Amino acid sequence: MGRVTQYSAINLIPRAHVDPEKWSRMPSDVEVAKTIKAIEKRGIKVIQAESGQHAVEILKTIIPPGAIVMSGSSTTLSEIGYEDFIKKGQSGWNNLHDTILSENDDEKRLELRRKSVTADYFISGANAIAQSGEIVACDKSGSRVGAWPFAAGHLILVCGVNKIASTLEDALQRVWEYAYPLEDARAREVYGVPSQIGKCVILANEDIEGRVTLVLISESLGY
Description:
alpha/beta; Rossmann fold; 9 helices; about 20% strand
């Protein structure tokens, strides 16, 4: 897997009481190929990455200089080194996340967060991928999933193959039995309050050609 962080799954599993052997296994090459074919039939481009570092290099080639970029909170993005790359300030992009953090007025910051889902390029993790091609993400506030259906000009999803589940039903069950308990454990530690599944999006089809890209990494990442 990518770089292990304080809030990587391996460090939260003992408190979250989840089953990684069931919900975070590495799929076979046949399963991965089947999943990619199903995703692409739904109008979503798939780019395979050998590692997290490779995924970051792919993002650099996808996103043009000067683009307005926003990223949703994502353990995967942290583990692959994307957040470290952004902090260096050498991307050449207009990073909205920095703009939001620099705003001290609560109301103005909230308005910036609302507008950020309409970024030229919105980068996000995902919670589960069905072999039938649907991609699932859930969020407490909706700040991450709000960009998914339509708002973002381009949506780039970054995801490890460990999130592949057999069916859409299994993908949704993965959210409830694996991703949510781990995120809840993280939220309690970071914010001192529980998380919840407040908003869910199932990306089942994309009509706008080239709008959505999945960077699928051959590693176990995130939750």
